């Protein structure tokens, strides 16, 4: 093996370098790679959710109508949550309060995005007639995929890394970075928590697709599994991060938020399993659907994540002509 190749392989094995740029200029417009990562994640989530909702029997691209409300409210909620949990960044003597709006510099919180996005999704579902829990289940794998893509933005921004480490995959952070802990030697490596979460979230996508198909999880149960999976991992990654955070009873605010999300997921799973042991009759709420206010439940392949519900057979009495105008029952709402 040549000395040059050996040096390259040694360098690769020794650490993970941080990107040399975090933005680029396109004419007079500055494009932040952090924003591109978030946009990429949103696009991936929309495409995956559309596929899953359409497979369930919803109108193609109805997800766009829901996303129009869910995405902006999710971003607003994410920023508000971050600002409220990091007040020292924005308020006080010498701070620039207008930095609250500098979202391109980083600083959005997934737990705030979940809260704001849930409100937007609920409003969008009321608007389109899609059942909220049907949408949530269809969204869950794509949401994890979006979060995996978004974490690369933290890498480009050189932020949210973990404790110092000597593992071969340690992350390089320039000592001139304001987030570099004082007192540490130049060249100190840190846990790449962004990468840990990318791997965890990607595995979570595969797990959700598998268990959703295996157990036919509906009525929000798959979304509950998402909350448990993501938040359990977040407790670990958040515990080794060293970026500033408010501490309550010895734990960072995001650790508390993750623990609360795990508990919420368990509650949703338990309640919905008791309330809805069967299958959803339609992706639409009663009286809503693709055609003339009626749910248009399409036949599904037996390998689908969802169970097919076909129109019940017509009853024909003696002397009465058969009609195809009988209303389709959606089985009721529980």
Write a concise synopsis of the structure shown.
This protein is mainly alpha-helical and 334 residues long.
Please provide a written account of the structure.
The protein contains eight helices and seven strands, in the order H-E-E-H-H-H-H-E-E-E-H-H-E-E-H. Strand 1 and strand 2 (about 30) form a beta hairpin. The longest helix has 25 residues, at about 130-155. It has helices spanning about 5-15, 35-55, 60-85, 110-130, 130-155, 195-215, 220-240, 255-275; strands at about 25, 30, 165, 170, 190, 245-250, 250. The chain is globular. It has one domain (about 30-175, about 185-275). It has a three-stranded antiparallel β-sheet, with no helix packed on it. The model is unreliable at about 1-10 and about 290-334 (pLDDT under 50).
